[in-house]
Amino acid sequence: MLYTLYFLLLVGVLSLLSYSPAERQIHYEQYHEHDQQQQPLMMDDTSTSWLSSTQSSLQQIIAWSWRSWTGRRHPVFERPKRYGYFLHITDLHIDEEYIPGTTVDSDCHRFPTSSDSGPVAGLLGTPGEKCDAPVELAEKTLEYIAREWRHKIDFVVWTGDNSRHDWDKKYRPRKRKNIYHLNERVMSMMQKAFWPTARDPRHIPLVPTLGNNDVYPHNTIGDAHQDGDLLDYYARLWQTWIPTDQRATFRRGGYFAVNVGPRLRVLSLNTMYFYHKNDAVKDCDAPGTPGYQQIQWFEHELLKARSAHVRVYVMGHVPPSPKHYRRSCFQEYIRVASQFPDVLKGHFFGHLNMDHFLLLDAREEQDDLRHVKSNHYHNDTTALMEDANDEEGDVHVTRNVGKYVNWLRDMYEAVDPIDHKRASFHRMPVVAVQVAPSVLPVYYPAIRIYRYEIHDDDDRAQCRHQDKQPHGTLMEYDQYFSNITQWELDLDTDLDEAKLDYHFEYNSREEYDLEDLTIASYYEFAKRLIDDEQDQLWLKYCRNMFVQSLNDDFSP
Ligand SMILES: *[C@@H]1O[C@H](CO)[C@@H](O)[C@H](O)[C@H]1NC(C)=O
Ligand SMILES: *[C@@H]1O[C@H](CO)[C@@H](O)[C@H](O)[C@H]1NC(C)=O
Predict the structure, then answer these.
(1) Which residues constitute the signal peptide according to the record (predicted)?
(2) How many A from CA of 401 to the centre of ligand 1?
(3) Which of 20, 277, 529, 550 sits CB 3.0–4.6 Å from 219 for a disulfide?
(4) What is the pLDDT of residue 310?
């Protein structure tokens, strides 16, 4: 036993000699072709080449052995990581019926006849039009992520809606088996992208959740008695990613908890039980309803996490908002969320395709927000919105996004100041929710990378790290998008061969002066958005909201 220890020490010293700190901190060049003052996040990377990755695997083995022998962190090879990174990807909406060159009027399914003259489907998608995404877009996006991000991130937040919409009801009605099949295809792409490799042998936790287009019928899922088969199906499909001890929970309600790092846990919610369009469930205030049970579970998980000093991120498909949740479900969500600011460090959602945040005030009825009449000037921009998800008639398909933008503005305006003296460690009256833009090119396809704070020690030692935020605090994000229009123009090889790259769009710190992504910072940002006389910040925010695709509409 002692010899083994000596051996490990020897290997340790040898590797120490070959350790070169310069490799540790690299700066990732941006992929932008035009001038760009902003810089993507600095990454702490350990595996930039084969050589360094072999070295780092060896270090991992040594660190692991050290830890199992001594019960402590190896002083050199298991450096406490200062920051962690993760990916948020959402709304892939793949459509096997999508054919480039077909008409937008046919949902990108049928070729034009001589009388058709409208826009046609692009190779990787049709930004701004009512079409789903070709399978190739999802494939190339995940290949890009595997190439560029896989080895740099700790886990993946994946917020649902993998399957196409049911827009082409007459000719290509969507059946349950289609939804399952499309989910299987996306699942296997995810597995391929995040499976351990020789270069990076880690098991990267990937956290899935159900979208309103992943259930059948559309928007509708009842409790386990009613929809046990669907829950069982997804429990099997996602079994690699749902911890064994959580499978029963998932089969009961479609939600689960998973550890994604030391003292860091993600709660994946089944937001379908809160969604106002889901007719199979009722409000969240009656004991026994699936929504009520989920809220109970949510609260219980947060209590558990608090006593174990674990930090929590919560994620789901449909964001908590008075526009999308049943009233009681929304109220319950913010009631619980506002009671755990010390535990709950982020809320990640999709569904709306637009890049934005919600600032929810737990102190008052937000109900009237729904009816606020607004006279702001962003009133004539038409594009696809959440209600593109609506099947009931085409009238809802193109919508005035200006209305939503105004609603957001009113929301930011309505939030009362946070009295930090009264807001306690265990209570924060405001909740900040991240809504990430989709891969489905409603605007341009987009993904997001977050940086978060890591404390190796327990936070009880917090006072010793004055410069550090509490463990799990979100620090900043980089927003990436791909200009698939440009990509198609530049294409000079086979579609199958051609790689797709995403480009750095902006960084939250640089773009918005957001020091970090805490509630206090978001509150201050919301007020700056409103107060800016020239509206320059607001316009910037709107351009980013639509992934630079509606810049003309939002020019001064
Ligand atoms: C939008 O607002 C501008 C300025 O207030 C106004 O002139 C215009 O008529 C409005 N457009 C619509 C469609 O309401
Ligand atoms: C995307 O590419 C098109 C075609 O070149 C160009 O007109 C457009 O400005 C580009 N948009 C962005 C945001 O890069």
Answers:
(1) 1-22
(2) 14
(3) 277
(4) 96
CA distance 481 to 490: 16
Burial class (CB in 10 A: 0-12, 13-18, 19+), 282: middle
Residues of the chain with pLDDT below 50 are 16-36, 45-51, 365-398, 463
Short-list 98, 179, 174, CA closest to 131 = 98
Give the per-residue pLDDT at 466. Answer: 61
Spatial separation of the C-alpha atoms in residues 493 and 455, rounded to whole Å: 47
385-433 pLDDT per residue, tens? 444 444 432 223 345 678 888 899 999 999 999 887 777 777 889 999 9
Can you give 9-22 as a three-state secondary structure string?
HHHHHHHHHCCCHH
Q: Using CA positions, which residue lies closest to atom 14 of ligand 2? A: 483
Check whether residue 442 and residue 456 sit in a common domain.
yes
Looking at residue 494, its pLDDT comes to 92
Query: What are the phi and psi torsion angles at 371 (to 5°)?
Result: -110, 0
Q: Which ligand is nearest to the CA of 33?
A: 2
The atom number, within ligand 2, closest to the CA of 481 reads 13
The domain total for the chain is 2
Q: pLDDT at position 383, please? A: 39
Task: Say if residue 322 is in the same domain as residue 466.
Answer: yes
Q: Partners of 476 in the beta sheet?
A: 451
In a domain, 44, yes or no: no
What pLDDT was estimated at residue 70? 80
C-beta of 3 in contact with ligand 1 (< 6 A): no
What's the 105 CA to ligand 1 centre distance in angstroms?
29
Listed residues 79, 113, 140: the one ending a domain: 79
Domain extent for 136: 83-554
212 and 125 belong to one structural domain: yes
548 within ligand 2 shell (Cβ under 6 A): yes
Query: Is there a single domain that holds both residue 62 and residue 204?
Result: no
Please tell me the number of the ligand nearest to residue 400's CA: 1
Q: 48 in a domain, yes or no?
A: no
Confirm if 111 and 425 have CB atoms less than 8 A apart.
Answer: no
Q: How would DSSP label each residue in 429-461?
A: SEEEEEEPPPSSTTSS-EEEEEEEE--SS-GGG
**Ligand 2: centre distance to CA 502 (Å):** 13
Are 386 and 246 contained in the same domain? Answer: yes
Best residue among 483, 545, 550, 554 to mutate for probing ligand 2's pocket (most ligand atoms within 8 Å of CB) is: 483
On whether both 374 and 261 belong to a single domain, the answer is yes
In the numeric block, the tokens 């792409």 are attached to 189
Specify whether 10 is located in the same domain as 120: no
> 411 and 439: one domain?
yes
Complete DSSP assignment for 77-97: TSPPPSEEEEEEE----EETT
Which pLDDT value is given to residue 453? 93
Q: Exposed, middle or buried: residue 3 (CB in 10 Å: 0-12, 13-18, 19+)?
A: exposed
Rg (CA), the chain: 24
For residue 251, is it within any domain?
A: yes
> Of 46, 79, 112, which one is at a domain's C-terminal end?
79
Model confidence, pTM: 0.84
Q: What tens digit of pLDDT does each residue of 18-35 get?
A: 444 333 222 333 322 233
CATH of the domain at 488: 3.60.21
